[in-house]
Amino acid sequence: MATNSMKSNEEIDTKKKFDFALGMENYRLMLIGFGIIVLGFLLMMGGGSDDPKVFNAEEIFSFRRITLAPIVVLFGFIFEIYAIMKKPKEKTE
């Protein structure tokens, strides 16, 4: 009888060793948040010139680069915090 009890305890310990701190839903949400952050940085790109003597202020200081992109990046970081803090659903066996 003692061996059966020990065996089940070993199985439980092994199961606990391989549990992740976050659930699959958390990792999916984190991936989405990462995509949002990358999108924000892509929105910031551009506006440069091949000629260093030419300065195109309208293109560099556009609404997209100065306002929209930083808001998107900030939202991505807030979404990442939510993804990490969200409590994973309990598994029913």
Automatic annotation (TrEMBL):
Lineage: Bacteria, Pseudomonadati, Bacteroidota, Bacteroidia, Bacteroidales
UniProt-listed InterPro entries: DUF3098
Transmembrane domains' residue ranges: 27-46, 66-85
Protein name: DUF3098 domain-containing protein
Alphabetically ordered keywords of this record: Membrane, Transmembrane, Transmembrane helix
